[in-house]
Each structure stands twice: as C-alpha cells, then as structure tokens.
Carnitine transport ATP-binding protein OpuCA (Staphylococcus nepalensis), 251 residues
Amino acid sequence: MLQLRNISKSYNDNNVLRDINLSIEKGEIVSLLGPSGCGKTTLLNVILGLTEVTQGQILYNNREIQRKPMQKRNFNIVFQDFCLFPHLSAYENIVYGLKNIKKRIHDKRVTDLIELLALRPHLNKKVHELSGGQKQRVSIARTIVMEPEILLMDEPLSALDSVIKESIKDMIQRISKTLSLTTIIVTHDPEEALTMADKVVVIENGEVAQFGTPNDILNHPKSEFVERFILKQLKIKRDHIYRLFGDRHGA
C-alpha cells in the first residue's frame, strides 16, 4: 500500500500541494485528474522521488520513503513523449535498462511482456518506423521490464489519436491487472480518468477535491468544482462514459 499523509509542497511562497492524504492499494489503477497547473504532475513527481516534499509523510508498505532517493524507491515512470532512443531498435529500447542491472535480457518475463503488448512484429523496427501507439507500447514495455513496484504515467495518451487511445487504455488496464501492478496516471481528460481507473483523485488548486470510484465521482460529486470540471466538460461524452463504465463493470 502507498500512503500519502499531509503532503505539502511549496516553492518559495507558492503552495503547489496542500495537505494531500491518499491511500492506494496494491494493484489499483488510480488517476490524478485536474486542469493544467493544479499540481497533479508535481504530486506524481513527489511519489516518484523526483521532487522533495516540503511537509508530510510518504509510506510504502508501512515504511517511510519521502527521504529515499528516486533510484532506491523502485518506482518507474512512462513519459508522454515516449523518450525512446532513436538509434536503437524497439527491442533494444525495451531491454536497454536491463543491461545496467545485469539481468538476463531473454528472461521469460521479457518475452511474456512482449506478447502481452503485441510487440513481436515490431521488435526489429527503428523508432522512426513505429506508429505513435507502437512507440507508447515500447515505452511501457521498457519501463515494466525493470519490475517497478509502482508504475507512474504522465499523460500517456495525450500524443495519440482517439482510435489508438482506446487500444492503449485497454493494454494499460490489462497489464495492471495481469501483473497486479499499482498504476498511477496523470491526466487532464475526465473521460480517460473515468474509463481507465479504479479510483480517481480530482485535484483543485493543489488540494484533493474528491477521491473515489468513477461511480462516486459521476453520481456524487462533492463540490461545485468537481461537478463543473467533470460533468460539464463531458457534455456529449457523458453517455459514452456511462456505457463504457457499465460494460466494464457489468461483465
């Protein structure tokens, strides 16, 4: 379990995060949702260890980690712009990090992940030969082969078109559930958050406006901000959200 207790982050007089309290269970997919500048990426970086907290505790499996450096937390991140090495093939990108930790690059976990992400036909391609969706799958594979205990994703769908987004969303859900991998996703898109996540953290000006299931957020918004940001933004998409939500949980 990952727990955030009274987390605050300030830069000089600018309070970016204020008194954040969250508990995230193993294997859950949690979306950090909010408008640009609300603090969601800062919160992701605090969890990753890229940004130090000003105040509060971060506990992972009941041990404090807020003072642990990023490289010792065993969390890993997928960036929105893929960050692949253009001179390497898809396969070489996937196994690149394993060489540094002296793990076998032909391990069954690697081959299973390649199959799970449907990447086998693309392994010998260079980055410029891959589509946006293929690049994102390679980026996800490269991160997961390092066996992170928590997978962090910063706007993983923002660079993709709508058709590819749906397939990547499905793959992220499948990977998280197959591997029981705790996954935290930053997004500004209510549709993405509500259709991908088990729970959603709605952030307003550095504070948690609401934390709950998609059903809670949709049907029981706790503030005018949550209702305005979620429901009014969705408009025509709202029926589509309900249909996807019903299909996923009614199966």
